[in-house]
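ok trying this again, last paste got cut off
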Amino acid sequence: MLLIIWHSRTGGARAMAEAALRGAAGEGDARSLQADEATPDALFTARGYLFICPENLGTMSGAMKEFFDRCYYPMLGRIEGRPFATAIAAGSDGTGAERQIERIVTGWRLRRIAEGLIVNLEAQTPEAILAPKTVPPAALQECHDLGQSFAAGLAMGLF
């Protein structure tokens, strides 16, 4: 099963997670959980992970970090070698959140199976940053395709 763990404050990362889940649903077993609902048990039963969140102030969102804080030690040594991918909803760069997730899952010994997907929503003013986000259709298609290929790879035993 592909587990999509996500957090969204203004809707961009939520739309990305929903698109990835739609893609995954046609290819295999997939489940989506908000970061505050994800538990070590949910992680343990999954065969792969797609982490989706916004970048806030150059790092992953606090709720996503709290998920990792809560689940890191209970999962240490229990999920090595499992595949993962990331998708970041960014106001501009997105690489800070990407690097932060990469560092954390390195401790779990997860294996990246796709290049990080960073969707630049170009929110640069306080008003744009706080406003509800609309993710461009092309970016949603990329999220759909990521979920689809990840779930298909799990179903075929490639990952």
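PB: full thing came through this time. DSSP finds six helices and seven strands in the chain.
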